[in-house]
Structures are given as C-alpha cells and as structure tokens.
Specification:
The chain is of the alpha+beta class. About 40% of the residues lie in helices and about 15% in strands. The model has no long low-confidence stretch (mean pLDDT about 85).
C-alpha cells in the first residue's frame, strides 16, 4: 500500500465507498487549504482524476472545459485494497429544479434580454445593494452555476452585463 496519511486515506476511502466515486463533498473536518493540498497530492499520484462536474456542489475547479470535480481512480481502489472499481459512466449534467419567481431567475432573465442589464437595473429589480449585485454575478452565476457573463461599456447606459445566447 502506498504511504498515505490518515486524512488522505479517509478522503479516498469515503470516495471509493460512494457509488459515483466522487471526492466531494469532503466529510473530513479540514481548515484552510488542506483539502486542496490533499487533493493535489492524490492527483499527482494518480489516485484521483478530474472529470466534468454535473453538480455545482461538487466543483473542484473551473477549467477550459468547464466545471471539474474529482473522482477516485481504479488505482485508488487497488491501493486501499477495496477491489475493483465500480463501473461509473461519465456524469451527465442534471438540471436542478429551480423555483420560479426568484431573484436569481429575474437577474438571469435581465442578463439574457437584448442589451443585457446594468448593475443599477439589477439593483432596482432585486432591491439589492451594488456590492451584492456584483457579488451575485461573480459568485452565484459565474462560479456556482458556471454561466458565462460578458460586459461592455454602452454609451448612455454605462457597463452592461449579459449572458450570451448559446
């Protein structure tokens, strides 16, 4: 068996026990960048691999191909002495149920409209402060949902943000 720390063994063992083999969510109680350091080490050893993320709650990082998550490899199962890795198909994105009439839905509708929306328009539609509207664009929409948001300066309106059509 490869020399793994107790925490590495715990994280890897938990992933191997899951039907889909995903590392996230991590159940170990770790602080700071410890999870990232452990995952980088396991990646380097070939015990885990990056795959497209189907669920925003399991995102490891955002790459050129989109959101990525981590999954235990057959080598991980062998290293832990668990036996053969289960046959797991590549994950396919599953649309989450979204409530209607939410502020998120309102902002997305504004951003998809012709000409997009300014921060002031988002603030008026949601009753949010400016910093909340900007944080929502970068956090919830870009990072969590993986949406592409573009911006440009428009004469007479200022900076307009939009979600380009696919």
């Amino acid at each position: 068996m490869t020399d793994l720390t107790d925490t590495q063994t715990l994280i890897l063992g938990t992933a191997c026990a899951r039907e889909n083999g995903l590392i996230f969510p991590v159940t170990a109680n770790l602080k700071g960048g410890a999870v990232g350091n452990i995952c980088k080490s396991l990646l380097k050893r070939g015990l885990i691999e990056e795959i497209p993320a189907a669920d925003p709650d399991t995102v490891w990082r955002h790459g050129e191909a989109g959101s990525l998550t981590l999954r235990a490899t057959p080598l991980a199962h062998q290293t832990l002495g668990i036996g053969d890795a289960p046959e797991t198909p590549e994950p396919t994105p599953v649309p989450k149920h979204q409530r209607s009439g939410t502020k998120q839905e309102a902002v997305i509708t504004l951003l998809k409209s012709e000409g997009g929306a300014t921060i002031a328009e988002i603030m008026a539609a949601t009753k949010w402060a400016g910093h909340t509207a900007r944080g929502f664009l970068s956090g919830a929409l870009k990072k969590k949902l993986g949406l592409t948001i573009t911006s440009e300066k428009v004469d007479g309106r200022g900076r307009c943000y939009n979600i380009p059509s696919a």
